[in-house]
Amino acid sequence: MLARCACELQANASNSEVDALESATVGRSYRQYCPIAHALELVGERWSLLVIRELLDRGPLRYSDLHARLEGCGTNILAARLKDLERGGVVRKRRLPPPAGSSVYELTEYGLELRPVMHQLAHWGARSLGPPTSDAELQPGWLVGALRMALPEVTTGAHIRFHIGDEIASLVGDSVVDGALDNPDAVITGDARGFYALVVERDVDAVSIDGSEKSVREVLRAALPAPAQSSVA
User: Fold this and answer.
1) What is the Cα–Cα distance from 7 to 2, expressed in whole angstroms?
2) Secondary structure string (H, E, C) spanning the chain
3) pTM listed for this prediction
4) What are the φ and ψ backbone dihedral angles of 186, each rounded to 5 degrees?
5) Which residues share a beta bridge with 164?
6) What's the pLDDT at 9?
7) Which pairing describes strands 186-190 and 159-164: parallel, antiparallel, or unpaired?
8) pLDDT means over runs of 10, the chain (233 residues)
9) Buried b / exposed e across 58-97, counting CB within 10 Å, b at 16+?
């Protein structure tokens, strides 16, 4: 029943979007009238969701910058994935005005609708991935991306500063920004393992909280329902 309802929603796409989506699935179709199969035809190839992750996190990126952030992805594979995503109406290529003059890739409005999907997928995957090990290599700036994925468009109005290892980022209302925030409601300090426990297991005791613990708990509840064995009251 849900699948049938979801299929009906596709009829709302514009004619241009439909044409693009149809052309993207030629030769790779599951040949099923199913929204899940159709979604996989658009974004299910290897590296496709990681391209979307980077564009959600960093916004428009040049090809070279995108490639640099996708370690292990060959240039030919990345070029093919971008072409597929363009044909599917998920990504578009845009030339910046002078003096830059370079081309960037960005998500379309249709592609931006994947944000809550990526949010749910990240939380689902994190549960079996487990916390980072002591020798895990985290890219500089990882905290901002992790917070944007863990706390998308949280609307509690809280201002919270995060000091996780060497990384500093802040939640300002419904936005995540790089760097420190003045006069926050709470300051969260800890390491990467504690951060994992906080945002995945909702364990507020895994980090140090200076200030309003209530504000932190409200943000966690707004992001996702707390798991059954969480310490969030």
Assistant:
1) 9
2) CHHHHHHHHHHHCCHHHHHHHHHHCCCCCCCCCCHHHHHHHHHCCCCHHHHHHHHHHHCCECHHHHHHHCCCCCHHHHHHHHHHHHHCCCEEEEECCCCCCCEEEEECHHHHCCHHHHHHHHHHHHHHHCCCCCCCCCCCCHHHHHHHHHCCCCCCCCEEEEEECCEEEEEECCEEEECCCCCCCEEEEECHHHHHHHHHCCCHHHCEEEECHHHHHHHHHHHCCCCCCCCCC
3) 0.78
4) -155, 150
5) 167, 190
6) 40
7) parallel
8) 42 45 58 94 96 93 95 95 96 90 94 93 91 87 91 83 96 90 95 94 95 93 63 48
9) bebbebeebbebbeebeeeebeebbebbbbbbbbbeeeee
Q: Which neighbouring-strand residues pair with 168?
A: 163
What is the length of the chain?
233
Q: Which two tokens stand for residue 100?
A: 């830059």
